[in-house]
Amino acid sequence: MEFLDATLALLCAFAFLAGFIDSIVGGGGLIQLPAMLLLLPGVPVPTVLGTGKVSSAAGTAVALRRYAGQVPVRWRAVGAAAVTAGVFSFLGARVVSLLPTELLRPLVLGLLVLIAIYTFWRKDFGAIHAPRLPERKEPLYGVAVGLVIGFYDGFFGPGTGSFLLFAFVGLFGYNFLSASASSKLVNLATNLSSLAYFAYTGQIIWPVALPMAACNMLGSALGARLALRQGVGFVRVLFLVVVCAIILKLGWETFKAQ
C-alpha cells in the first residue's frame, strides 16, 4: 500500500511539472508520459495513454481559461483549427496502427532542428502581435493547420505543442503569448478527441487519472500565470528549451533504433 501511495505521489509530481511546462509552450507529454511508463510497469500502453489524457486535457483547459481573458485570441481562426484538429487527431490515431511511426521520426527531427535555428536566429520572432492574414481568410488557414497538426498529433505526437506555437507565430503573425493561448484550444480539442476514445474503450485508470489531473491543473494555472507575468521573451526562451529537449529525445530514439 505504501508503495502504491509513493507511486501515485510521484505521478502527481510529474503531472504538476508537465502541466506547468505545457501551459506555457507545450511539451508536457515529454515529462508525463515517460514517467507513467516507468512508474506503471505492466500496465498496457493504451491504458497509460488514456490515463494520461485525462490529466493533460484538464491541465490544458485550465491554461486556456487563464489565457483567454488576458491575451488576444482570434476565436474564428483558432476555433476552425481546433475543430479540424480534433477530427483529424482521431483519424491519425486510427491510421497509426497501419503505418510504422518510425518512418516519421527523422522527418520530425529535421523540422524541429530548423524551427529551433529559425527561432534562435530571428530575435524578433514572436515578439510583436501583428496578425498578417486577412480576417476572412484566417479560418481557412486554421482548418489547414488543424488538419495537418491534428493528424500528426493522433498519429505520432511528440512536438505537437511546439509545431502549433510555431504555426501561429510564423504563419498567422501572433506573438508568443497569443500563440500559446491559441495552441491551448487546439490541444484541448485533440486531447478530448482521443480521451473520448480511451474512455469509451475503458482504457483509463480513474483512481490514478483524477489525482494527476488535479496536479496538472495546478501546474497549468501557475505556469500560465508566470507566462503572463514574465511576457513574450520568457515564453520564447522556454520554447527554445523545450524544442531542444524534444530534438535530443527524438535524436536519441532515432540513433538507438539504428
Automatic annotation (TrEMBL):
Protein name: Probable membrane transporter protein
UniProt entry keywords in alphabetical sequence: Cell membrane, Membrane, Transmembrane, Transmembrane helix, Transport
Localization terms from the record: Cell membrane
Superkingdom as given in the UniProt entry: Bacteria
Signal peptide: none
TM stretches of this protein: 73-91, 103-120, 163-183, 195-214, 234-252
Membrane topology: Multi-pass membrane protein
Annotated Gene Ontology cellular component terms: plasma membrane
Pfam families: TauE
Entry-linked InterPro entries: TM_pro_TauE-like, TSUP
Major site of localization recorded for this protein: membrane
Family label: Belongs to the 4-toluene sulfonate uptake permease (TSUP) (TC 2.A.102) family.
